[in-house]
Amino acid sequence: MEKPHLSHRSGEAQSDEPVERPATSYLKLALVVYGIVGRGRRVHYSPRNDVTLCGREITAYIDIDEVVELLNKGYELCIPCHRRAEQRAAAARLAESPSRPTGAVAAQRLSTVQANAVTRLDHARIAQGSHPADATDPNVIAACAALTGFLPATLTGKHDVTMPTESEQSVRGYLVDPRDTCSVRVFWVEAGRIIRRDQLLGGAMLDRIADRLRSRGWVVMPMRRSSQCVIAKRPTLSAPEVLDATVQADASRDEQQVSRCVHGYALGHEVSGDPIAVCARMQPTQRVGVPVDVGFVYLDCAVAAANGCADLADNSERETQPGDDPFCTWVLMCPTHEEQPCDSCEECAAEEAAREAAPVAPAGSLSLESLAATVICPACHVAAGARCVTRAGKVASYPHGRRIDALADAAGITAHRTAQDRDGWTSGIDRMAEQNLLAVYAAQNGARGGLSA
Length: 453
Prior knowledge:
Radius of gyration: 32 Å
Mean pLDDT: 75
């Protein structure tokens, strides 16, 4: 394997001898050219798609003479780019070898697999299951084929899985990272960030990934409780066999249907209840709770909670008999009150009892919404008597919440509710008292019920 010619790094004494001209025999086989990125002091390789083999955007392409000049000035070749260029060249040599009767077929399949891996979404700028720069790595392709049916993480070249941005926090799935010539690291990404094995949300996925790779012939290294990835060694197969398995896996990927919830999670084995249906009907403010000794552990997905409970039950040492209570359960929480199950919320029951006991307001009674137009809106700053408007300048269907709050302050309702909370003598809303306050306010301001904001 040809080694890159590196210059002396900054801070070290540089030699006055000119740098030897880099070998370029593998560049034609790898179909790459030289390029530079920004003001960096490295020379990169690119397949002329404006992206380097290490996943960065090319600033300018350069020829071999400019490369020699830059290396004499202290620049160095990019090691990841050089390694991937040699891998591409080795694959091309294998495909063109006359000793293999299936070389043309292998080359065609290799081209198809690489094209599917690199251009699945956006011409190597976005990839599924790996970073775009690693999408053509043979070990990554083989690992993704073995993990067919698992949810792959959709990543860009700029995605940092240790510090995701706000727009990247919706990414979840497995991430394959090449480790050396025959092994990979497989992470599980949750909310755009890699997680540990001992985390309740998604941590069990590392065990499932390890089981899948082990069943496909991979040698999986033992994991600790706090491990962040699965380290697996690729099975010893010849290049045509790996390509055949990869092509067949890609062909069957779309045919395999896996039941998933609206959050993208697949249902595990021996879970309790119907978490997929629960995920479908969950409200935006609703969560799922797993009871623990000090309260609840909250999750945003019922399937993830059910899978976690099933894994905890499998790993527990407690001996269970038929009819015993489950080792770990999950419940849908109340969307309004904390630490209250939805089906048995004590606070909701108390509020419902208070509403039933409260006297019914007479027909045509006043409301905060009907009198909202009597105050200036703090949100859109329209004058009293005018309806609220949106940011686009259109008339809003309902008054802004801050306008309702301003009316409640002006009518004395806010102060009345504060006094109720301070005294603690009621658990509901004193509708009759608030109706009286609104009536006094309307009389003082000449407003009538039914005025629309």
